[in-house]
C-alpha cells in the first residue's frame, strides 16, 4: 500500500498525514494507513534575518510566530509586528517572514551579537540564564485567579482534552488551552512541541487582546511545566498556568517571583498548588 492508495479521509485534521504501517497482533499482521502528526522545519525570519528554525506542526503558524516573538521578548506587543507572510520552501519547510519595528529589530540584533560571542556550551550555564532574562516581571492578578479551585481545573483539563482533534487522530501532540475562570475552554492549540503549542495559544491571545475581545482566563498545558513555559506566560501577563504533569524547581521559583499561580499534577484525582 502506497500513500496514493490510501482512501481519502476528509476528517483528517490539519497537521496530520497518513503513512503506511503494519499492525502486529496475536491474530496476524495487517497493513494499515495510520494518521501521524507532521513535524516540519519552520524558520522564523525577522526583517529578512533568520532568527530560529523550529520543528513544529504546520498549523496556526501565524499564531505561533507572533506568540514566539512576544514570549521570547523580541517584541513587546502585537502591534510591533507590522507584517507577516508565510513562504513555503517545499520539502525544506516554511518561512514565517515578519516585519518588526526598528527599535525591536535593533534589540534583536544586539541579542544575536551577544549570543554569537559565547563559547563552551552555548546557552547553558550562568551567563546564558542571565541572557534568558529569568526575571519576567510581575504578573497582574485578578481576584478570581486567587480562588481557582479543583472543580474549575478538572473541568478545564477535561475540556482541553476533548478539543484535541489532532491528538485524537495521531496520539502524538501537546496542547495548550485558554480556559475561563470556570474551566470552560475558549481556544485550544496543538503542536508536536509543548513550547510551540503554548506559543500558538499566546499568539492567538495577543491578537484577541489587540482586538479587545480577549476573555479573562488562564492557560493550561498537557505537559510538564518547565521554566520556559512559566516565563512565556508571565511575559504575556497570564495570571495562572495549570499543567497536567510536574513542574521543575526553576518553574516554581519563577512563578513565585512573578506572582503567577502555578498548578501542576492537574488530574481527576487531584492537583498540587505550587505558587498561589
Automatic annotation (TrEMBL):
Belongs to the FdhD family. The active site is at 121 (cysteine persulfide intermediate). It holds the Pfam family FdhD-NarQ. The lineage of its organism: Bacteria, Pseudomonadati, Pseudomonadota, Betaproteobacteria, Burkholderiales. HAMAP family: FdhD. This is Sulfur carrier protein FdhD. It is found in: Cytoplasm. It comes from the Bacteria. Keywords: Cytoplasm, Molybdenum cofactor biosynthesis. Its main location: cytoplasm. InterPro entries: Cytidine_deaminase-like (IPR016193), FdhD (IPR003786). Required for formate dehydrogenase (FDH) activity. Acts as a sulfur carrier protein that transfers sulfur from IscS to the molybdenum cofactor prior to its insertion into FDH.
Amino acid at each position: 500500500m502506497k500513500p496514493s492508495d490510501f482512501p481519502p479521509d476528509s476528517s483528517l485534521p490539519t497537521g496530520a498525514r497518513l503513512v503506511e504501517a503494519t499492525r502486529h497482533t496475536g491474530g496476524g499482521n495487517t497493513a494499515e494507513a495510520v494518521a501521524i502528526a507532521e513535524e516540519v522545519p519552520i524558520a522564523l525570519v525577522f526583517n529578512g534575518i533568520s532568527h530560529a528554525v523550529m520543528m513544529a506542526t504546520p498549523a496556526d503558524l501565524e499564531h505561533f510566530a507572533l506568540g514566539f516573538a512576544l514570549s521570547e521578548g523580541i517584541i513587546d506587543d502585537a502591534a510591533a509586528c507590522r507584517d507577516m507572510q508565510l513562504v513555503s520552501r517545499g520539502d525544506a519547510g516554511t518561512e514565517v517572514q515578519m516585519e518588526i519595528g526598528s527599535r525591536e529589530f535593533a534589540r534583536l540584533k544586539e541579542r544575536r551579537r551577544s549570543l554569537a560571542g559565547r563559547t563552551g556550551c552555548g546557552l547553558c550555564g550562568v551567563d546564558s540564564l542571565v541572557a534568558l532574562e529569568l526575571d519576567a516581571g510581575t504578573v497582574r492578578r485578578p481576584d478570581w485567579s486567587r480562588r481557582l479551585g479543583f472543580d474549575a481545573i478538572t473541568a478545564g483539563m477535561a475540556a482541553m482534552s476533548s478539543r484535541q482533534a489532532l491528538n485524537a487522530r495521531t496520539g502524538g501532540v501537546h496542547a495548550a488551552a485558554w480556559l475561563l475562570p470556570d474551566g470552560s475552554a475558549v481556544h485550544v492549540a496543538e503542536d508536536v512541541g509543548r513550547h510551540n503549542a503554548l506559543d500558538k495559544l499566546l499568539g492567538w491571545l495577543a491578537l484577541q487582546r489587540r482586538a479587545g475581545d480577549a476573555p479573562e482566563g488562564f492557560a493550561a498545558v498537557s505537559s510538564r511545566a518547565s521554566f520556559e513555559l512559566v516565563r512565556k506566560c508571565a511575559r504575556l501577563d497570564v495570571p495562572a498556568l495549570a499543567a497536567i504533569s510536574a513542574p521543575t524547581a526553576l518553574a516554581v521559583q519563577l512563578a513565585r517571583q512573578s506572582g503567577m499561580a502555578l498548578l501542576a499534577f492537574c488530574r481527576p484525582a487531584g492537583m498540587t498548588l505550587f505558587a498561589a
